[in-house]
Design goal:
alpha+beta; HU Protein, Chain A; three-stranded antiparallel sheet; elongated
Length: 120
């Protein structure tokens, strides 16, 4: 099998293509990887690192559950957006339905993070 070429950086659907490419080559970072890197970098035990990571994620989760935004300087902004109820259509039957109101979590990377990811 020939080696995989990197996905396009421009054009329609590039996000999906890039995610699938990353899955194919096995590029991902898990919570366990984060714990390990923090333990190594800070010179603390893995148990202390696990507690730290769990605490940070717990704080982030509870803040977002309350509907508050989180802005991390140099990283980006997590924002909870409210979507109103709207009319929709069942694609199988064509029947008109109401889609319930819901909250959607979005992330907007900072310009610093964008440039770092793009090799700037």
């Amino acid at each position: 099998m020939p080696p995989l070429s990197p996905p396009p950086t421009r054009g329609r659907g590039r996000g999906i293509i890039q995610r699938n490419y990353l899955k194919l080559i096995g590029a991902k970072m898990t919570k366990a990887d984060i714990v390990e890197k923090i333990a190594e970098k800070c010179g603390i035990t893995k148990r202390e690192s696990i507690d730290m990571v769990e605490s940070v994620f717990s704080i982030l989760k509870s803040t977002l559950e309350e509907g508050e935004d989180i802005k991390i300087s140099g990283f980006g902004k997590f924002e909870v957006k409210k979507k109103h109820a709207r009319k929709g259509r069942n694609p199988q039957t064509g029947e008109a339905i109401t889609i319930d109101a819901r909250s959607v979590l979005t992330f907007k990377p900072s310009t610093i993070l964008k440039s770092a990811v793009n090799g700037g």
